[in-house]
Amino acid sequence: MDESRLFIPLNIGNIEIKNRIGMAGVSRFRADDQHVPTDLMKEYYCQRASVPGTLLITEPNLISKRNVGLRNAPGLFTREQTAAWKTIVEVHMRASYIFAQLCVLKHEILGKEATIIRGPGTISLDTDLPTTKAMSIEEIKDTVQDFVRAAKNAAEAGFDGVELLGATGDLIDAFTQEDTNQRNDEYGGSVENRSRFLHEVMKAVAHAIGIKRVGLCLSSGSTSQDIRLKKNAALQFTDVIKRADDLKIAYIHLTEPRIAESNGIRDNEWLDFACTAFRGPILIQGGYNSKLAKNLVDGRHPDKDIVVMLGRYFTSNPDLVFRIQHDLEFTPYSQQDLFATKSFKGYTDYAFSKEYLGSLNILTQLLC
């Protein structure tokens, strides 16, 4: 049995996870055309909760009917979507835990054909994307309430909490970043003002469902959807993380850049800074394997509550926690199948390891 701190329980908000390996949210496009979760999704999440006490973060959930540009992504803005998620969560993920990731795309649907891009300002740095339309103050306030309604729906569905997606260039990230937020009102123009939208979302959602049920995902090196990381970005992330720390949210989840490693060890000053600025648990995602994960929690930060999050390898290894604990090889994932729509292929057809299945047989015999 592995004696790494990866397998020591940890309190996160109102829950106690039994290991420090979690599933990060990865878009999978298996909801139906009305963004309602399906039975196929139920099978998928139950498979990945195969090791009791594991923390799972769902793929991004859309929070408004105006914001449904991501095909076959699940949502949490209708009663039907909430009820469908409840059928997934009510089995309580085989004694594991699950947070619903909430996001806002910058695409706004006006009709069957018309689509605009809304964001903090009118600038567009990426020639592949249309110029954005600056959101009004009223639209910003309405979006905060969209988060609140989605969070309440998540609580009704039985989720242990929600994770606010402030990474990958989506709306929260766009407000936070200097390149995409060039407003000159209370939501832009300074480090503090660029953090305002996210801070308002965190406070409003915490008031609605409880601060211990709120997590925040940030990306320290995202360059997607117009984002171009500045040298002084640490100032902005310092402000954001300190606000999250002051509120005492359940955790922050950092999607870090793929830092070069030597002898299975990474040197990442950004992570070291975050571990100092945020006093609660920190979830870390960024291409980790078993060796890097163990070094992170046992070697670099033995006194910090860190959970190592894996995304794509969790898609192809439903028993991933068991494999790490027993030093088993990972099944490679299919890049193409990650983006398939409504298909079981590359989704629920990945096999459990023979060692995991054998452990279930032994347990069954002991209980008989």
Write the layout of secondary structure elements.
Elements: E1 10-12, E2 15-17, E3 21-23, H1 39-48, E4 55-62, H2 79-89, H3 92-95, E5 97-103, E6 107-109, E7 115-119, E8 133-134, H4 137-157, E9 161-166, H5 171-176, H6 191-194, H7 196-209, E10 214-219, H8 233-247, E11 251-255, E12 261-262, E13 265-266, H9 269-277, E14 282-285, H10 290-300, E15 306-310, H11 312-316, H12 320-325, H13 354-367
Parallel strand pairs: 3-15, 4-5, 5-9, 7-8, 9-10, 10-11, 11-14, 14-15
Antiparallel strand pairs: 1-2, 6-7, 12-13
Helix pairs in contact: 1-2, 2-4, 4-7, 7-8
CATH fourth-tier homologous superfamily: Aldolase class I
Unreliable residue stretches: 223-229, 363-368
Give me the strand/helix succession: EEEHEHHEEEEHEHHHEHEEEHEHEHHH
Strand content: 15-25%
CATH topology: TIM Barrel
How large is the radius of gyration? Answer: 20 Å
What does this molecule look like?
By secondary structure, the protein is of the alpha/beta class. It has a single domain (5-367), classed as TIM Barrel (Alpha-Beta Barrel). It has 13 helices and 15 strands. An eight-stranded parallel β-sheet has the order 3-15-14-11-10-9-5-4. Strands 6-7-8 form a three-stranded mixed β-sheet. A two-stranded antiparallel sheet has the order 1-2. Strand 14 (282-285), helix 10 (290-300) and strand 15 (306-310) form a beta-alpha-beta unit. The radius of gyration is 20 Å and the shape is globular. The model is unreliable at 223-229 and 363-368 (pLDDT under 50).
